[in-house]
Amino acid sequence: MSKDDLLVLHALRCGGWSSVARVAEATGLAEADVESELIDLGIDGLVTYDSGAFGAWGLTAAGKVADADRINDELESAGARPAVAAAFERFLVLNPELLDLCTAWQLRAVDGVMTVNDHHDAAYDARVLDRFADLDRRVAPVHTELSTALHRFGRYETRLTGALARAAAGESDYLADRIGSYHAVWAELHEDLLATLGTPR
Asked: Of 2, 149, 172, 198, which is most buried with the most CB atoms under 10 A?
């Protein structure tokens, strides 16, 4: 299995059933290269394609085993387990704050009653965005530690920063309400850390 094979396989492990475009965004590979890797992985019985309403690729049972084996080999051969484990502990400290911010973005108190945030209160949204930006600054050292330990982790910082920038530019669903949102990418990073360390959720 090549390096790109592993990136594609692991993107499905962390992100679940995905389109070619979503895997390309997760890995930084061109869509044509992702599609080629998926076809090869499919021939090997590691991934499968569901042609349902959206059309998506996912791991087979054999693919899950292969990914776990390769990711563990990568971690151990790089001697990166202590660094990744330490970064994960720092990530876990910030994780509850991210969840609270997502709730604050989706709901707000109106006359003492929690209600869906319709994003008509620009001042409220600006305060929540500022808190997201502060969290993003504080998680930056964790990204640095992870990408230094294993290069593939570097893609998360790019994706998170990009989602935050889009939200700040007015695309409000890029914080917590769509595939590719800050929250969705954060959840993928969380899943990746668990998978990389072989830690059950």
From this structure: 149
Strand partners, 107: 116
Q: What is the pLDDT of residue 1?
A: 56
Question: CB under 8 Å, gap of 24 or more: what pairs does 126-134 form?
Answer: 128/101, 128/104, 128/175, 129/167, 129/168, 129/175, 131/101, 131/104, 132/101, 132/105, 132/164, 132/167, 132/175, 132/182, 133/164, 133/168
Q: pLDDT value at position 2?
A: 67
Q: Which residues neighbour 48 within 8 Å (Cβ) at sequence distance 6 or greater?
A: 42, 57, 58, 59, 60
What is residue 119's predicted lDDT score, i.e. its pLDDT?
A: 85
Mean pLDDT over each residue of the chain, to the nearest integer = 93
Could you give the CA distance from residue 142 to residue 91 in angstroms, rounded to a whole number?
Answer: 7
- Mean pLDDT confidence for 169-187: 92
- Nearest to 192, CA basis, from 183, 201, 181: 201
Give me 173's structure tokens: 């669903």
- Residues 66-121 have pLDDT tens digits of 999 999 999 999 999 999 999 999 999 999 999 999 999 999 888 788 889 888 88
Would you give the DSSP letter of residue 60?
-
The residue assigned the tokens 């592993």 is 6
